[in-house]
Amino acid sequence: MPAERGPAKHGPASGVSAEARRRRLIAAAFLLPALVLLGALVVHPIGYSLYRSFFDRSGSTFVGGDNYREILSDDTIRTALTNTALWVVLAPTTATALGLIFAVLTERVRWGTAFKLLVFMPMAISMLAAGIIFRLVYDHDPDRGVANAVWVGVHDTFAESSAFPKARPGRDSPLTDAGGGAFTTRDPVRAGTPVLLPLVGVAPEALPDGTRTAGTAGAEPGKVTGTVWQDFTRGGGGSSNVVDPTEQGFAGMRIEAVKDGKVVDTATARSDGTFTLSGKADGALLRLPAANFREAYSGVEWLGPSLVTPAVIGAYVWMWAGFAMVLIGAGLAAVPRELLEAARVDGANEWQVFRRITVPLLAPVLAVVLVTLVINVMKIFDLVFVIAPGAVQDDANVLALQLYRTSFGTDADPGLGSAIAVLLLVLVVPVMLVNIRRLRKEGSR
């Protein structure tokens, strides 16, 4: 007779297996929506972009690697690659360095929290709003752009601009062009005979403050006197080369007496345009030097072809230095104070403590900030698009902006745009892998 089978044994192993399966099913149920979204929003777009990059702009003709070859041959895209590399090198390092400096310096001051709040505040502003703000900050007109208003103010402190940049001799004037922007009298002047130096071309509202109605210089024995003025009467009328009652003097105009190529005497016109030279000027030519007519300094063209990329990077650093400061400040709070105090007791100065203790202990935090900002600047788009004027967008171009310009618009080429997107992904992935490896290493400690 066959042996009777006993009841099935349910050991602990089979129970654990059933429980593990149940937990896996629950985990899968919770993960499924996230996986679906990940596939729909990340995996599918990446796969489709890779597929589309091998076709022409219409999507009907397979072109192989032609789009990738065009990336390397197109001057505009090469400029975008160069600028992106410049961004990756300058923006993250500058923002991280400023964040480190702010975090360390504000640790010892009573108002450090308020300062950190002010520095972090730009993070609350969108990239679009920040772009509009800095488009105005970098405006070339000093009356509108803050950057040029400050720059021009500093410049004019050391090299004041002329109030008469457009002044010039009129018709039949006793003055003639001496070259280099200066004007001289046609004939030598004589002591005791007043000299008339008429000029035109300056708008009445542009005359310097304190200017008065032009006066007629009286004759002085042994001295050369004269008047330099705006030989123009509002509303018409008046006589040429004659000081008329309503015409304005050129206050502050510099006059030089020149003999044999040497300046023998100088004078500055009074508020009514009159001036007086000593007897040394007798028989000399009077010269109005070019400094009188120097164009007003208008500042730096921040958004010109040569400076637009550093200018936009400056706007980015303004926004993200606060982010770096907050993270580094959190890491700095965890640094053991006894190490710092021990170094100071051993005779280390503050710079040595900062360089040899603070920075090495903050290295993991600095790496997090730096890698995060590198990934962020690889996809920078908003600031460049808003701040850079249309005329210089090719000079300020970056890969993300070139991706947008290539993929959309009247002359769109989705195939080439997809190739740029794939290139951007390939450039970002190594940085992400480094970050993941670093996080795993930190987790295994």
From TrEMBL:
Origin superkingdom: Bacteria
Lipid bilayer topology: Multi-pass membrane protein
Transmembrane feature ranges: 25-47, 85-105, 117-138, 315-336, 357-378, 416-436
Residues annotated as domain ABC transmembrane type-1: 81-435
Pfam families: BPD_transp_1
InterPro entries: MetI-like, MetI-like_sf, UgpAE/MalFG_permease
Keywords: Cell membrane, Membrane, Transmembrane, Transmembrane helix, Transport
Entry's localization field: Cell membrane
Entry keyword annotation includes Iron-sulfur: no
UniProt main location, coarse: membrane
Family membership noted in the UniProt record: Belongs to the binding-protein-dependent transport system permease family.
Protein name: Alpha-glucoside transport system permease protein
Species this chain originates from: Streptomyces avidinii
